[in-house]
Amino acid sequence: MLAFMGLTMRKAPLLVLAVLLSVVLSILSHAEWKQTGPYGGSVHVFAVSGSNVFAGMYGGVFLSTDGGTQWKAVNNGLTDSSYISALAVRGTDLFAATYRGGVFLSTNSGSSWSPVYSGLPTDPYITSLAVNGTSIFAGSIAGVFVSTNDGANWMTFNNELTNGGVEVLAWSGTVLYAGSWGGGVFRSTDSARTWTPVNAGLSTMMGRVYVNSLAASGNTLFVGCDTSGVFCSTDSGATWTSRALTGATVEAFAVIPAPGGADVFAGTSNFGVFHSTNNGTSWTAANNGLTGTNGGLSITAFALSDQHLIAGTYAAGVFLSTDEGTSWAGSSTGLIPTQVNALAASGTAGSGTNILAGTGLGVFRTTDGGDRWTSVNNGLTNPYIRVLAVSGTSLIAGTSGGVFHSTDNGTNWAPVSSGLTDTSIGALAVSGRVTFAGTENGGIYRSTDYGKNWSVANNRVVNTAWVAALAVSSSGTKLFAGTDAGVFLSTDSGATWTATGATGNPIWALAVSGTSLFAGIGEGVFQSTNDGADWSAVDNGLNYRGLLHSFAVSGTSLFAGTWGGGVFFSRDNGTNWTAVNDGIVPDNVMINALVAPGANVFAGTRSDPFSNFSVTNGGVYKRPLSEIVAGVGVSTNQVPALFRLEQNYPNPFNPSTTIRYALPSTSHVTLTVFNTLGQRVATLVDENQDAGYHDVKFDGNSLASGLYFYRLTAGDYLATKRLLLLK
């Protein structure tokens, strides 16, 4: 026993080291970027089934199992998820309609979907769904379609249902109501076989009645007419009475039956939520917590889940109320990631405890490393944020309509654009108390009071179309401007400017690291160590030739963000670069902004609309800096998280180039090259290959100059890129 114990004790350190090494290698092999938000998106419709809440959006169907707090996409098999226009529940069956793609059925809470649209037109333009017994009804611009076999077959009657198609369907007992765009309200008592118009008293516009929303509670009906407010009928639509909110376009209703008359919520397109406790006779605004500047006052849908009232918005995702609309809180985690244009880190002594994200929907803030984001837009009357800057305890936001200033980490904002004759801001830089702003029309402005007053500061700068980047030297005495005509230098706080050695090229990004100045010049990175007098390319390993749009500096580490190539990392101040894209599909995202305030690196992204567009790409990605540094050191041993085909390098090339791709698992790989006629000119790989990164050299010596395409097939993954041979 003692001998056994002694043997165990002697081997224990080796076993511990082996286990630790295994854990470390496992962590490194799966290190990747994590998408953290902020989330939002356009919600079109809700459906509730037990404890499950479903949201139909531009981007697919999303499921919440906790009353609307957290969401996840459930789109497997939903071949057209670009615009979910309607949802309906019947028992355990869930039906989803896409505006142009027909109807889909899920029998497992959205985990998988099957198309059920036999008999529907090619472009059905489905607007609404309703269920009654074994029948499902689909409203469209062509009328109402009916299926009695779970959507396997559809038929239509549409007798007397005319004028503009159906916008919304609602059941009340055995009566089906249809709201149309131009024809008003129709009623059917025989399951859509025949219809009767019931419009007496409804407001008309040029002789027609435009219905946006419809809700039923017993014999009481509520209708939202375009810009005409709410109308109510207590006799099944025979007569209608105006219930105020005139001038508002009501897009959605939520009706809660109550002893003294229904509790009604009306969601409008511009003014938020209104609440009535007396059947719609009078209304009170119920917008506490809804943020107007980021689309939170444009209400598109309601849902009731247990005691929760859930509101969907045009662009700001979901809001949740647990006190019958008295107050609201954003509840969009897991929905569509919001496009991020700018990032900034603020906090005591630059600790970076707060991360601010500037989006097309205003500013979002996280204080916990990105786990939760909060909209902080009070006073921010222009929500389209292009750039953010930090000066001590002050935050400065440049928008498409001027500059805004916050002294409380973004909670409140005030406009500070006095003296700005061009308010389309493209760049900001701060040096002490002096703030500089570059505009889309080429102007550079200076403020010495955090933007309260501005003066022109671009004397003798070349006449340029735009200023996309500004940077201040480490000493704070030199200001650099990146324009469509190159880099310019000012040594007198913007009073005068001189052209540097980098002229004639569009500059999208600038960064200062020690005595080095870096510029993103179209398709690569250039470095100057003498204030721009001389420049040299520093692109070893930067095997992407596209637009370089953002930089971040952390000590001697440098990050570069591209449009379509992902994120690149240099641990030696730009001498060598490595792609660090695990967790990001670089073809699909544009890296608009980077910030590395401490232990983590954050990347602000948007979907690339020109390459494999996906609305689920965007938002802020986060990754520990230590993970990236360690990962670059052992990059050849990493197992990538995703299939990926990278851009060949160099490109253009003569006569050879290298093609790199990533395999997360052992796969049969085919890598082929085609000419512009679709003819295969080379097969570079056709074999099973292990997981990892693979580099293949392509020699075009026997080919004519011109454009070619290379295609990678690995399992179900297929990707194609272009390469250019110039002899």
List the helices and strands and how they pair.
Elements: H1 2-29, E1 34-37, E2 39-40, E3 43-49, E4 52-57, E5 60-64, E6 72-73, E7 84-90, E8 93-98, E9 102-106, E10 114-115, E11 126-132, E12 135-140, E13 143-147, E14 155-156, E15 166-172, E16 175-182, E17 184-188, E18 196-197, E19 209-217, E20 220-225, E21 229-233, E22 241-242, E23 250-256, E24 263-268, E25 273-276, E26 284-285, E27 299-305, E28 308-313, E29 318-321, E30 329-330, E31 336-337, E32 340-346, E33 354-359, E34 362-366, E35 374-375, E36 385-391, E37 394-399, E38 402-406, E39 414-415, E40 425-431, E41 434-439, E42 444-447, E43 455-456, E44 467-472, E45 479-483, E46 486-490, E47 498-503, E48 507-513, E49 516-521, E50 524-528, E51 536-537, E52 548-554, E53 557-562, E54 567-570, E55 578-579, E56 589-595, E57 600-607, E58 618-624, H2 625-633, E59 644-645, E60 656-663, E61 667-674, E62 680-689, E63 692-699, E64 706-714, E65 717-725
Largest sheet: 8 strands, antiparallel
H/I helix tally: 2
Number of strands: 65
Structural class computed from helices and strand pairing:
mainly beta
CATH architecture of the domain at 644-725: Sandwich
Shape: globular
Work out the oligomeric state of the chains in this entry.
Answer: single chain
Low-confidence segments, ≥5 residues, pLDDT <50?
Answer: 1-30
CATH class of the domain at 644-725: Mainly Beta
